[in-house]
């Protein structure tokens, strides 16, 4: 994403005399950031996401800096369109600026990643809710969006597809894109968001830290080698629960298994690339840590306990 997206004094109300759903909202979304939006039912989260995505226009204020490649997954996908899944995605790919061949290839690749390749020729109207949600998500990812806006996009996906969407989000931020999401499950991408906002009384509260507890689950330990003194790429820090330089040029990252391939990609695509020496399951699956202190920035990373005895070094836990 080339620039920050900015909302300045943004308000939205439905109808000339309708109540203000949002009012005086200021928000900046920086390139490469992951932004969580929370709020109670009906507080205006979807309204905010539609304004960010450019699907809706503010009644007051301005939105600037929205990148050309902005993609949006709505809370409800209009599944009754007269297309097959592949036909719809290929068509949208061309709308996003891809050639027909590139759109067809991207369509096949994303349907495959989400486990929906078997439904490529199925009319959208005949897809199950879960499969049509896969199409909804694939259409947003097709053209490598610089800004990705996800409104409850995980809802209805099976576990494998939910994990795949987590990975796709990580790829977008690693590529310098921004992702703004709402999800009713507080564990979704827990501890990974750069910033969390709560929509309340028409405004936005910035929450510290993270707003949600870090993710728990099985962890793996990645040992990677780099030149002595090399600093791990920022993207590695985002996904690793802990990082330590255990010997000159030898780094050990502990990361939730669900995030491990994103960490590996960050290391292998760094310039110069890091050498991944070993990936092993963490000896013990850690318990979820206690909730973070309310005033203790920075926001938590994914939760994995450092291995016993691992010293914290220059690449230590943030
Ligand atoms: N198109 C619309 N026309 C009229 N009112 C609307 C429209 N869209 C949203 N609203 C109203 O705006 C308010 C905020 O709705 P919105 O869907 O943005 O909230 P939300 O936080 O996303 O809710 P939920 O958590 O239930 O999805 C609600 O009172 C809703 O009824």
Automatic annotation (TrEMBL):
Transmembrane segments: none
InterPro entries: AAA+_ATPase, ABC_transporter-like_ATP-bd, ABC_Transporter_VariousFunc, ABC_transpr_CbiO/EcfA_su, P-loop_NTPase
Amino acid composition bias (Pro residues), ranges on this chain: 287-311
PROSITE patterns to which the protein is assigned, alphabetical: ABC_TRANSPORTER_2
Pfam family, one: ABC_tran
GO molecular function per UniProt: ATP binding; ATP hydrolysis activity; transmembrane transporter activity
Family matches, as SMART domains: AAA
Entry keywords, A to Z: ATP-binding, Nucleotide-binding, Transport
Residue numbers spanned by region Disordered: 278-318
CDD domains: ABC_cobalt_CbiO_domain1
Domain ABC transporter as annotated: residue spans: 5-226
GO CC terms in record: membrane
Full protein name: ABC transporter ATP-binding protein
């Amino acid at each position: 994403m080339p620039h920050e997206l900015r909302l300045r004094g943004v308000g939205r109300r439905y109808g000339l005399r309708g109540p203000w759903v949002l009012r005086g909202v200021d928000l900046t979304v920086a390139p490469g950031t992951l932004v969580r939006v929370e709020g109670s039912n009906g507080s205006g989260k979807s309204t905010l996401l539609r304004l960010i995505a450019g699907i809706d226009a503010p009644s007051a204020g301005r939105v600037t800096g929205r990148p050309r490649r902005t993609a949006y997954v709505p809370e409800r996908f209009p599944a009754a369109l007269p297309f097959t899944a592949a036909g719809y995605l290929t068509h949208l790919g061309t709308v996003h600026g891809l050639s027909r061949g590139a759109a067809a290839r991207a369509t096949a690749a994303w349907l495959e990643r989400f486990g929906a390749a078997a439904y490529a020729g199925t009319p959208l109207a005949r897809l199950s809710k879960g499969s049509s949600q896969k199409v909804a998500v694939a259409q947003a990812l097709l053209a490598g969006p610089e800004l990705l806006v996800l409104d409850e996009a995980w809802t209805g996906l099976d576990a494998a597809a939910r994990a795949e969407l987590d990975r796709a989000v990580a790829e977008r931020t690693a590529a310098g894109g921004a992702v703004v999401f709402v999800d009713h499950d507080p564990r979704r991408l827990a501890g990974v968001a750069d910033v969390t906002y709560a929509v309340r009384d028409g405004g936005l509260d910035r929450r510290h830290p993270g707003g949600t507890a870090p993710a728990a689950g099985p962890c793996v330990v990645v040992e990677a080698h780099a030149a002595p003194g090399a600093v791990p790429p920022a993207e590695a820090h985002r996904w690793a629960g802990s990082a330590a330089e255990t010997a000159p040029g030898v780094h050990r990252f502990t990361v939730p298994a669900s995030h491990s391939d994103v960490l590996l990609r960050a290391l292998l695509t760094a310039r110069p690339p890091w050498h991944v020496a070993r990936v092993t399951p963490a000896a013990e699956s850690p318990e979820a840590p206690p909730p973070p202190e309310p005033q203790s920035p920075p926001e938590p990373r994914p939760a994995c306990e450092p291995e016993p005895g691992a010293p914290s070094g220059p690449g230590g836990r943030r």
